[in-house]
Amino acid sequence: MSQPDPERFVEKFTRVWASPEPDTFADLWADGGVLLHPTMGASIPKEEIPDYVRRLKSFVPDINRLLRHLAHVGALGSQP
Q1: Per-residue model confidence as pLDDT tens digits over 38-80
Q2: What's the domain range around 44?
Q3: Does residue 80 lie in a domain region?
Q4: CA-CA distance, 73 to 37, in Å (whole number)?
Q5: Residue among 56, 22, 27 at smallest CA distance from 39
Q6: In whole angstroms, what separates CA 52 from the centre of its chain?
Q7: 78 found inside a domain
Q8: Which helix (H) or strand (E) holds 35?
Q9: How far apart are CA 71 and CA 14, in angstroms?
Q10: CA-to-CA distance for 70 and 79, rounded, in angstroms?
């Protein structure tokens, strides 16, 4: 396994959220990786992440704008 590259991850994370096509979200996970959100009863494998994002976006269609707002006001650890 290669060494973690935080800067590369942040760049990829920013790119995926800037143009949120559900299929690209799985690219944020390593092969064999899983997603477990505190609201989920069980983890899901990388292959199921695009469908999870589609469902999430159907419930919160403006999630991208919400995340940008939270980042702006410092709620995500950034400074306005």
Answers
A1: 888 999 999 999 999 898 888 877 776 666 655 555 555 544 4
A2: 6-72
A3: no
A4: 23
A5: 56
A6: 11
A7: no
A8: strand 34-35
A9: 12
A10: 10
Q: 16-46, pLDDT tens digit by residue?
A: 877 768 999 998 888 999 999 888 899 999 9
The token pair at 10 is: 């942040």
pTM reported for the whole predicted model: 0.68
Neighbours of 4 (CB within 10 A): 8
State the CB neighbour count (10 A cutoff) for residue 80: 6
32, 47 Cβ separation under 8 angstroms:
no
The torsion region of residue 77 among left (phi > 0), alpha (psi -120 to 50) and beta comes to left
Residue 60, domain member (yes or no)? yes
Q: Give me 31's structure tokens.
A: 């092969």
In a domain, 1, yes or no: no
Q: Please give the tally of structural domains in the chain.
A: 1
Instruction: Locate 54 and state its tokens.
Output: 């589609």
